[in-house]
Amino acid sequence: MSAALVGINGFLHEGLKKRIVLADVSKSREIRRFLVSLPILMTKRTPIIGGNWKMNTDLESGMLLAGAVADQFDSCDCCDVVIYPPFLYLQAVDSVIGQSMVSLGAQDIWHASNGAFTGEISADMLKEIGVTSVLVGHSERRHVLGESEVLIAKKMKTSLASGFQTVLCVGETLEERESGNTLSVVLGQVTSGLEGVSASQMESVIIAYEPVWAIGTGKTASPEDAQSVHKEIRECVRGLYDEIVADTLRIQYGGSVKPDNAAELFASPDIDGALVGGASLSADSFNAIVAASCKS
Ligand code: PGA
């Protein structure tokens, strides 16, 4: 997680070097507002590690897992940690993570506020039980459950309007990669997912780049391949918004992240953490990935 240098015109002027400020802008809105008023600033993005449990665990094992993660990181402030248990266990998990630094996330959200949507969960329901972060457009929702770009964009809007940190998941299939379409697919998903999202709402957006062929398969994108897509995502966001939004945006990598490959991925300048599936189901491996992000 490297520092990003931002100048008014994208330049770091020799004579202005003493005005550089080093700050973790993703932690505090007030600090961020103050810093953006300075002519030149240096941002350091706080890594964010998410544990996406998917449709795994049961009530007891989920509570034990959450407790083991919360115990390990109750006082760490070098990264953000969020766990995304199944909906049914959110409340129980919330009671376990309590005041620890671990935040509670939901794997999905419905875009309407209430009504005849059998099986769906609204923003208010999630808020009521302590959820602060929401995944939108996860690969399994796109490819297994057939969610469209239109639906994903609606969910993004609802989640952000409701004040959630919102993780927009994007990624190409193996076929799309092999036919040379990785960037057009990924940047297309970024652009369409962010449609109608304002620059100020971008403070609450995280993008998770998760190549579909790497999810749950044991195959990981090489740090170089992942870095090059992350960089393109950041450039795309720069074009859609501005320098500050692009340089403060956190972009997670997801797809078979494990303790053995985490440090190498996190060493890349545009990789700001990970969204972890399989390896988040064991406290030992998830905690090792979180620890690796703190060292990067
Ligand atoms: P994985 O899943 O770590 O098991 O590949 C990642 C994800 O789906 O978010």
The N- to C-terminal Cα distance equals 6 Å
Q: Reading side by side through the largest sheet, how are the strands ordered?
A: 4-5-6-7-8-9-10-11
Which class of secondary structure composition applies to the elements? alpha/beta
Which segments are poorly predicted (pLDDT under 50) over 5 or more consecutive residues? 1-29, 35-42
Number of strands: 11
Per the CATH scheme, the topology name of the largest domain is TIM Barrel
Q: Which CATH-level-2 architecture of the largest domain?
A: Alpha-Beta Barrel
CATH class of the largest domain: Alpha Beta
Briefly characterize the structure.
The chain is an alpha/beta fold.
Describe, in plain words, how this protein is organized in 3D.
The protein is α/β, with parallel strands linked by helices and 296 residues long. It contains 12 helices and 11 strands. The chain has 2 domains: 1-44, no CATH class; 46-295, Aldolase class I (TIM Barrel). The strands form 2 sheets. Strands 4-5-6-7-8-9-10-11 form an 8-stranded parallel β-barrel, surrounded by 7 helices. A 3-stranded mixed beta sheet has the order 1-3-2. α2 links the parallel β4 (48-52) and β5. It is globular, with a radius of gyration of 18 Å. Residues 1-29 and 35-42 have low confidence and may be disordered. Residues 52, 210, 215-216, 254-257, 275-279 line the site of 2-phosphoglycolic acid. 2-phosphoglycolic acid binds at residues 52, 210, 215-216, 254-257, 275-279.
